[in-house]
Design goal:
Layout: H1 9-18, E1 39-45, H2 50-66, E2 70-76, H3 82-92, E3 98-102, H4 103-111, H5 124-129, H6 132-135, E4 139-141, E5 147-149, E6 152-156, E7 159-164, H7 165-171, H8 184-193, E8 200-202, H9 210-217, E9 225-228, E10 231-234, H10 238-252, H11 270-274, E11 278-284, H12 288-294, E12 301-305, E13 314-316, E14 318-323, H13 330-340, H14 343-353, E15 356-357, H15 375-380, E16 385-387, H16 396-412, H17 418-434
Parallel strand pairs: 1-2, 1-3, 8-11, 13-16
Antiparallel strand pairs: 3-14, 4-5, 6-14, 6-15, 7-11, 7-12, 9-10
Amino acid sequence: MRIRSALAAAAIVALAGACGSGGGDGGSSSSSSSSGEPVKINFLSLAWQKESVAANKQIVDEWNKANPNIQVTYVQGSWDNVNDQLVTQFAGGTAPDVIHNDSPALSGFAADGYLLDLKDKVPAELKSDIPQSAWDTVTFDDGKGGQGVYGVPFLQESQVIIANKKLLDAAKVRVPTADNPWTWDEFSAAAKKMTKDGTFGVAWAMKSPVNKTLNLALNFGGTFFQTADGKTTVKVGPEEREVLQRIHDQLHKDKSADPAALGQGTADPLPAFYKGKFALLPAGVFLRQQVAEQAPDGFEWVTLPGPKGTTAQQGAVSQTLSIAQDSKHPEEAMKFMAFFLNGPNQAKLAKGDWLLPTSQAAASDPAITTEENGWDVATASVKNLVVAPFLKVNGFDEWKSKVATPVLQEYFAGKITLDDAAKRLVDEGNKVLERYQR
């Protein structure tokens, strides 16, 4: 759910030394240490875009000025290797108190006992401001026969369609709205109508196809995984095949999808988009930032909602803040997190990352409901986000990298049939998942 940054290696190496849990203040959980010095909390942030880093640091500075007895140190990390870094820090007892990550990473760390269960620790105001569908993304088995909450979800991503306004207007197709999105049939018909004179209707960047297709599969109730008697297996039935087939048809039957984009990463098709090589680019909401900042003068674009099938639902993954199990100051860490993630601050963070806040208060902030740069359409899409089914699957990352990514790449490239793809996703996938069953 993010574009990964290439931060300086020195910043990463510095984490191990900078993130000693609790800052070495002894075991006190009061708002100041026994020596009278302020409690020190280390906050590992993975913000990387300029606006986002600035927003993070501004909020930390505001907290420190207002709370002299609880001082937070901002520690810059990177999405590129944060989980490997955390494994080392957890094992060595040097993990930061407050940890920025995303919800897929929490399950394993929670199962290993590295994260604090926040179920009874989140303040009522913060808990009620975030809908249950978002809390579901951070809720996992607690190892005691119950469910634990191992992070506070604060930013999410939806899939939208970024459109060349000139080509959209010229085609005279119905322009979808948040309240009345295109059906997949309308989407396909619009793409076909805009395919002419060397211009394609749509471009699917499928270098990393798994999350995009699995999240969109929920448009038709496709989950790709099923659990029975405590055992999870891969499922590729009629519901899962719908979106796969429709994207494949655009590429190979309708020929309305630009084949040049197929092997590209999310942002790679943008130069061709600006030149009018295709009209529609399905992408995560964050890509709007690059379009807003890089599009040539005079280029007009709009944000359209993602298409709907039997439902408009999409899979959601959340960016999260968690507290290390070994933190010496969990109460103070939670107080800081509650401030960091209040409505106004979530609005700042969402604006900085061009993502969607989970906070219902933030979602009504004028800064992220304006029509400018498609914020109104992006923010409205939050209502369609539900917990991504793969979020709860042990072994998903290996299934994704070793099975699903190469299989879907071959399928979308027209090298194998849908039946072949389905069989491999299931057969090879179940062999992977089998090793993770408990």
